[in-house]
């Protein structure tokens, strides 16, 4: 039944993303910003933030255990469906990428930068970014966002149910949206820890969903990838799995200068297709595990 819930949530979430509706980030923002004032000198404290994530996770774990004990596990599935729809999703990306690709095709890199600047890491939003650096920064952000809002949630839901899915997604939300910036770096370490195993599993999946030969040359540099951040692992493995220099703008421009105006849209489509195929691989594997009685 968990597989059915997961499939329904995934399909519904994708449709909502296409319509740019129901962003879970809005909920996390309100949840974190309500009653989270801290006294001077304690801006780096993570106690309140962890409590705001652990509390719902623990309450849900207790609820699941209670319903299992009473034989009413089926009653929890509608709630899990709604929670998964809220936990997953990256609304707004489709419109941003479309506008960016059109500006790139026109050669208007300033317009392209304005469309995506809010999606780039704060340290990489400078207007002096070259087109190549801007595109790679956007690609990292896109891949990281989809990983954290889909693959991370799916992985921990399958491993430990909805409580672990909330905990993992909550750590990511804390690293991005906790009101005290001084504490976000500490939360980021927790988010990286939660992402360590699923990120490397997704990196391995890229080999099945993309160019296996090219992927095999890159994957040895990122598995296990001690000391490498999640985005570095995903970008390196995706670079090997994608053909046509989709993540190598400089080499693409040298090899196909006449097709340079199409590079932005072509590269982003390749990344999205790779991620979509990878999710299909995950769903098929989960289905096989369900049939085998492992999950």
Automatic annotation (TrEMBL):
Alphabetically ordered keywords of this record: Membrane, Transmembrane, Transmembrane helix
- Extract the InterPro entries matched here: Beta-lactamase_Reg (IPR052966)
One example of a Gene Ontology biological process annotation: response to antibiotic
* Segments crossing the lipid bilayer: 49-68, 150-175, 274-294
Q: Is Transmembrane helix among this UniProt entry's keywords?
A: yes
Q: Which spans of this chain does the record mark as coiled coil?
A: none
GO cellular component terms, semicolon-separated: plasma membrane
Keyword Transmembrane among record annotations? yes
Query: What is the recorded name of this protein?
Result: AmpE protein
